[in-house]
């Protein structure tokens, strides 16, 4: 049995039932066969056994009181996965579907993503099964304060620097930062995605969406194409989806869908800048449902559906994991879609990934395509350390340069290992080698 299969057997036994985590591990292991063959030193040092095991796992009770005066309890988590390249870095997710498996898959992916950015960041992820939807601002604040009362013991600007993710935006980060400062009596860059007036970076909100579009732009360049006139479908309607739409519009593409957990809106005329401004108010201020868009602008509403049945050139899954299954992928391909750039983490199921790779479309996996968010978080950390504030243009320029480099690194590794154009393999290998070599240097820890 090969080294990879032996590790797989152990990891699947030890983490039995953790479907999402095992899915993420399997995908990475599947890419690493040729790397292990060329580099027996990794097996000798047990790199794979160690890289699939989080360095530290923290699970805690989060008690809080709702508006009716009733005690509520949620579960809080932080998975500090790998610190070979720097302090743990990765978002916090608040969503009822959050559990150990989901956060471990996200933490595992984050290790390779952060490595790919070439910046000095380890990987981690955390969150809670708390659902901010339908809660008052006061309830969200009380929850965030309770969550941070425990989390603050484990994080710090040189140790572990969380950011936002699903369900954690500016409001939640603000409440958590306030509580951290109050308990620790220090004003440091312990979280990223902060408000602009209290340590945040310009362009952080835009970064993941813009980055996914920049990555797609780089993939298109390999075929001498641009976004001009391209029909694009985007899923989700949160932070990543909103800025994906904004950047596609700027580059001359047309976005015809957005969605939320209720369904999809299909606007044949395109979601223009004016319509997008309305959506941002709907989602970020009024916290309403995407269905309202259909009534307001006369678009179609596809109740309970995802956008993948709509004909497009480019698809940007920007909602959640496994939102494109094998059938969806087949429909996308049958309809002529040939660019998929993942704003979300692991949005394509293994069957979908296999179809995209086999059909040689321009497929940018999340690890590479959505790394712009964490890269800009690092830029926020750098500004905090130096106590400076860069302009929008400066941050955007750096973000674009990082996305170009990530694309180059993934493309080069795919080429070197005999699968040109396979960004899945390229991203996994390029991300892995840097972390693995740092782990070798640092001994068995
Ligand atoms: P938001 O909370 O801002 O938005 C999430 C969107 O996805 C909402 O429209 C939400 O709809 C929808 N969604 C979430 N879960 C589900 C589900 N189970 N089924 C259907 N729709 C769902 O999150 P973000 O935009 O920040 O994150 C979106 C994706 O991008 C996630 O996969 C995240 O991990 C990834 N990502 C985010 C980064 C960031 O910087 N924010 C960085 C890198 C990756 P509803 O409101 O109805 O739940």
Would you kindly provide a written description of the structure presented here, covering whatever features stand out?
By secondary structure, the chain is an alpha/beta fold. Among the domains are: 56-187, Rossmann fold; 205-369, Rossmann fold (3-Layer(aba) Sandwich), CATH 3.40.50.720. 49% of the residues lie in helices and 15% in strands. It contains 18 helices and twelve strands. The chain has helices spanning 3-14, 19-31, 33-38, 40-44, 47-51, 100-116, 137-151, 170-184, 204-221, 239-250, 273-285, 291-297, 326-334, 350-358, 366-369, 372-386, 392-416, 423-441, and strands at 56-65, 71-82, 88-94, 123-128, 160-163, 231-234, 254-260, 263-266, 300-303, 314-316, 339-341, 362-364. The protein has a seven-stranded mixed beta sheet with strand order 9-8-7-6-10-11-12, sandwiched between helices. A five-stranded mixed beta sheet has the order 1-2-4-3-5, with helices on both faces. Helix 6 crosses helix 18 (423-441), helix 9 (204-221) crosses helix 10 and helix 9 (204-221) packs across helix 16 (372-386). The longest helix is centred in the C-terminal third of the chain and has 25 residues, at 392-416. The model has no long low-confidence stretch (mean pLDDT 98). The site of NADPH dihydro-nicotinamide-adenine-dinucleotide phosphate has 24 residues, from helix 10.
């Amino acid at each position: 049995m090969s080294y990879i299969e032996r590790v797989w057997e152990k990891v699947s036994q030890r983490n039995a039932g953790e479907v999402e985590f095992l899915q993420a591990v399997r995908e990475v292991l599947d890419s690493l066969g040729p790397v292990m063959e060329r580099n027996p030193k990794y097996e000798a040092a047990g790199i794979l056994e160690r890289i699939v095991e989080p360095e530290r796992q923290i699970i805690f009770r989060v008690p809080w009181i709702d508006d009716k005066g009733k005690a509520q309890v949620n579960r809080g988590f932080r998975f500090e996965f790998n610190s070979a390249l720097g302090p743990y870095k990765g978002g916090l997710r608040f969503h009822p579907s959050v559990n150990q498996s989901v956060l471990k898959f996200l933490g595992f992916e984050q290790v390779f993503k952060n490595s790919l950015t070439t910046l000095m960041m380890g990987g981690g992820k955390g969150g809670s099964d708390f659902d901010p939807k339908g809660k008052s601002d006061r309830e969200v604040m009380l929850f965030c304060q309770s969550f941070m009362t425990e989390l603050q013991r484990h994080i710090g600007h040189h140790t572990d620097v969380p950011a936002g993710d699903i369900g954690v935006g500016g409001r939640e980060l603000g409440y958590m930062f306030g509580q951290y400062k109050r308990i620790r009596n220090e004003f440091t860059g312990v979280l990223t995605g902060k408000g602009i007036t209290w340590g945040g970076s310009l362009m952080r909100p835009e970064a993941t969406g813009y980055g996914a579009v920049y990555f797609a732009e780089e993939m298109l360049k390999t075929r001498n194409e641009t976004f001009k006139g391209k029909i694009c479908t985007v899923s989700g309607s949160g932070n990543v989806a909103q800025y994906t739409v904004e950047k596609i519009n700027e580059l001359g593409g047309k976005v015809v869908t957005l969605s939320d957990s209720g369904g999809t809106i299909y606007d044949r005329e395109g979601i223009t800048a004016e319509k997008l401004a309305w959506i941002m108010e709907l989602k970020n201020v009024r916290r309403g449902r995407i269905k309202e868009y259909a009534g307001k602008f006369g678009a179609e509403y596809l109740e309970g559906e995802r956008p993948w049945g709509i004909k497009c050139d480019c698809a940007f899954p920007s909602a959640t994991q496994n939102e494109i299954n094998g059938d969806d992928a087949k429909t996308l391909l049958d309809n002529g879609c040939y660019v998929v750039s993942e704003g979300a983490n692991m949005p394509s199921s293994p069957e979908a990934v296999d179809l995209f790779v086999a059909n040689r479309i321009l497929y940018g996996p999340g690890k590479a395509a959505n790394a712009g968010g964490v890269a800009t978080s690092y830029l926020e950390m750098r500004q905090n350390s130096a106590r400076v504030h860069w302009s929008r243009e400066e941050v955007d320029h750096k973000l674009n340069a990082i996305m170009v480099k990530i694309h180059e690194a993934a493309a080069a590794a795919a080429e070197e290992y005999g699968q040109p154009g396979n960004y899945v393999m390229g991203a996994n290998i390029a991300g892995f080698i840097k972390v693995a070599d740092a782990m070798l240097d640092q001994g068995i820890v």
